[in-house]
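Working notes for the structural subgroup meeting. M.R. asked for a predicted model of this chain before we commit to crystallization trials. I am recording the input and output together here so anyone reviewing the notebook later can reproduce the run.

Input as submitted:
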Amino acid sequence: MGSVQTPIGIRSSALLETSCGYLLQELQMIWDEVGDDQFEREKVLLDIEQECLDVYRKKVDNANISRAQLHQELADSEAEFTHLLLLLDERSLPGRPEKMTGTLKEQLESIAPALREMRIRKEERVKQFRAVQGQIQKISAEIAGESEYNDLSSNVLVNGNDLSLKKLEEHQNELQRLQNEKIERLQKVESYISMIRSLAAMLGTDSSLIITKVHPSLNELSGLSKNISDSILEKLGSTVRSLEADKKARLEKLHQLGKALTNLWNLMDTPQKDRARFSNVTALISLSSKDISTPGSLTLDIIQQAETEVRRLDQLKASKMKELFLRKQIDLEEICKRSHMEIPSRLEMESIMKLMNSGEIDHADLLTSMNKQITQAQEEASSRKAIMEKVEKWILARDEELWLEEYSRDDNRYSVSRGAHKNLRRAERARVMVNKIPALVDMLMAKTKSWEEERKKPFLYDEVPLFAMLEEYNLLRKERDEEKQRQRELKKVQNQVPVGQENLFVLRPSTSSKRLSDRSLNGGFNNATPVNKKSSLGIQQLGPTPINTPQQSISFLKESKKEDHRKILPRSRFAFHPGDDSASVVSSFSGPFSP
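Returned structure, recorded in token form:
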């Protein structure tokens, strides 16, 4: 109501005293009524007092135990808090009081929030460690090639003695390293698989069977995680090396077949349309293994088809070899004829044909040799082209010179007759050409000399040295000009002497002309090469028999060549035209290949 409240301890003590006094009075009344003596009464009171002390003592002991427990809880909390700080590598926690004040319960209440926060942080840190270590164990198991791995993170054992961020960072770095290694291994696996597919496509084999044979997980249809262990990488590398070895072996085989096909085609002059079917084989001859990536280019079917074609061509080669050899021989002879070079002997060709029929000579080597001779003949013909053009001009001019001489000896050339004006115009053109002959001959001699010095052999024109022919021509032309000069001087003298003496002078030119013609021929050939010396010797042996036509000169030279035991008959034409005022020679021939 309006009374002042008293403290709990005082109020309890007063209540106790009131209660105890009332009970003590009631006990005394009982004792009085019963009639207990004073000793009994004191003993009972002592017992009551002792019991009260025991109760108080028990309560005090319980209070002490409770206080000690609070002290222990506070110490444990502080120790746990400190341990968590050290375990998590935390220096302090915001919100924690620096100094503990108040009662024990107040102190426990003040540290409890900070302790709960540290416990939560520990649990989160443990989860982070468990996740990182779980990934490390998983990737490590994949790298090790373990087919089954329990991905339960609860099975991961975390070291509770060190949950610092530094330790977590170390695990994260290890995880990153393993992830990078896993990526690299996956890239290697994909690279190997790609190479296997490419090589298998080139070789015409099933890549999926090869990959599955290495490991089923490498096949994308399996739905399994790819095995990236060291053993799988080694198997993949070994498979790639094996396929590359097969590729190299097949390419070498196709190189051999391609070269064989090319040689057989060239030997038998196979048309290009027949070669096109195996162009994919011959195209590989110049390629190396690293240059080939076309799918289906190295299959066994292609090799078998090429082998079959090589066997077929080998069977045809023997029957066509004779025809090919004759064709090559004709080609060589045509080249030699066009350039007036030496033509190979018929006897030699016939002996080679006999050897070829008997099988004593290799067909490929024979045709290779023929091709080489044709190439050499073409090269030499090309080097002779400029000289041969000048020779043709010289021969044409020489023919015109001979015609002009015949025309000049015709007493009726100025008569009015049908076609006389054409001959006059031709004579004018012929004189222009004849006047150019000395310069043309000098140019020919210079070119021929340069050609011979470069080639280290004489320039032959139908087996006759061209330089000697030109020298012979110059000598005969000089002697002819001298003879013409003497004839003109003789005519002047004849016009001045008496008629009786004129007959004497008329006889001397004839004798001189006869002697000069023989001397000019003999002297000219003696200054030439051995071929012309033999021709000169034949002229001397013929004595006074005249050589008035080109046909007679050809027969004469052929006979002299036969005496010289030449292998190839010449087709030479020397035209000696001894007349009253000249003796000349001209040569045109087609043939020999210079040795």
